[in-house]
Amino acid sequence: MSDDLEVSALAINVTIPQDLRWTDTRRGEAFTLTTLNIRLLPDGRLAAKAYGRPAGGGRGAYVSFPVPDQPELAALIAAAAGRAGTLWAAHRGLG
């Protein structure tokens, strides 16, 4: 039965360690990127976006950015996906 179920999304959120965080700019405002949203695509590949808030503080929008092509970030994404798989496989059901 479980092979017949259609799972439409598998996504996790991961906090970016302080030493891997970066700043990017959108519409003239700097954002500090603190979180990754990692998705497992239907073909088994991973996709990721980075999210952050205005570097100057305040209650600005939570905005997404592309993840830079850096080996340290790729390793973080792969490790987080592996850890999520382990956690999902060990689930204990509802309640």
Provide keyphrases for this structure.
single chain; 95 residues; alpha+beta; 5 strands; 37% strand
If you had to describe this structure to a student in words, what would you say it looks like?
The protein has 95 residues and is of the alpha+beta class. The chain contains one helix and five strands; from the N terminus they run βββββα. It has one helix spanning 71-89; strands at 11-15, 22-26, 29-40, 46-54, 63-66. Strands 1, 2, 3, 4 and 5 form a five-stranded antiparallel β-sheet that branches. Strand 3 and strand 4 form a beta hairpin. The radius of gyration is 16 Å and the shape is elongated. The chain starts with 10 loop residues before the first strand and ends in a 6-residue tail after the last helix.
Overall morphology:
elongated
> Biggest sheet, in brief?
5 strands, antiparallel
State the order of secondary-structure elements, H for helix, E for strand.
Answer: EEEEEH
Percent helix, as a range, is: 10-25%
Structural class: alpha+beta
Number of strands: 5
Helical segment tally? 1
Summarize this, please?
With 95 residues, this protein is an alpha+beta fold. It has one helix spanning 71-89, and strands spanning 11-15, 22-26, 29-40, 46-54, 63-66.
